[in-house]
Amino acid sequence: MSVKSVIVIAGLGVGGGTGGASARAFAKEGYSVALIARNPDALKTFENDLKNSGVDVASFPISSYAASEVAGAFARIRAHFARPSYVIRAAVFNATHAVWKPFLDITPEDVQAVTQSNIEGSFAFAREVLLEFKDNPIDEVTGKRGVLIFTGATASIRGNASMSAFSAGKHAVRALSQSLSKEFGKQNIHIAHAIIDGYILTPRSKDYRNDPEWEKNEDVRLNADSIAAAYVYLSKQDRSSWTWELDLRPAHEDW
What we know:
By secondary structure, the protein is of the alpha/beta class. 44% of the residues lie in helices and 20% in strands.
């Protein structure tokens, strides 16, 4: 019996960024796609777009990245993409909550929102994914049971003014990914962290910048499709040469 590989992606926005591009890229590789996100309308619209392209996809909306919400989404995913016909082989945690404020303007609610999306959410997502991976046979080509990729940012490794809350959350995700890589690599589970160092061309960034020259210039901004291609590359690495962390930036980015 043919077994279909599934990728689970958390964090979608409106579908024009890294999460959406990853869904399309892995679908082209033959994966079925499970989508987790907080915006049910955008999630359904993107799901329908993928279905119209022939993708085997289902969406699982949540109200927050609280552990109980994430666990509930995975219960629905397991029911929809049930073993033995399906097996979860890849996962991307692309969710975040951005707070860019001077430190003394940050509220307890801001801290809670950052903590829930970046820390509670990433821990809960990783737990559910790893429980699935542990039951997978080792892939004969890559030597892995599965790959879990965390989307990071410049703030994952460097703080800055007005970035204390956001950077604290992204540092936490990076530390989690490194710890998981060291613990689960020995079980043939590949954990990776991608530092996205620069602005990505998305519908939101287009509106924010309102700069047609910036949009056209690939030297100064990232393409979501190119990030997704890097994620596919990570998924195909064999066990003799695994990447834990990579950084992606446009050619002219200052760093």
